[in-house]
Amino acid sequence: MGHSGHPPHIYNGMPAKHLGTEGWQKPWSGTNGGSCVEAMKLGDGRVALRQSTDPEGPALIYTTHEFETFLQGAKQGVADFLLASD
């Protein structure tokens, strides 16, 4: 929480711990030993992402439109180049 009990100003790169511990989910976790991306839907519809191995590290904040575009593109395979080995 911010000053006087008000929620903190939410901005890209803010410490993820300032968003609290409740509401984080691991939709992409698997057999990777717990190292995964965690996501939280914020009250204003934006999406926060953090690295599970660094829960107090920076949070990336995306608008609803940005995250919808990312997910649609990922489903269509446009990010597959990130997984391709050279």
Automatic annotation (TrEMBL):
<feature type="domain" description="DUF397">
    <location>
        <begin position="23"/>
        <end position="75"/>
    </location>
</feature>
<dbReference type="Pfam" id="PF04149">
    <property type="entry name" value="DUF397"/>
</dbReference>
<protein>
    <submittedName>
        <fullName>DUF397 domain-containing protein</fullName>
    </submittedName>
</protein>
<dbReference type="InterPro" id="IPR007278">
    <property type="entry name" value="DUF397"/>
</dbReference>
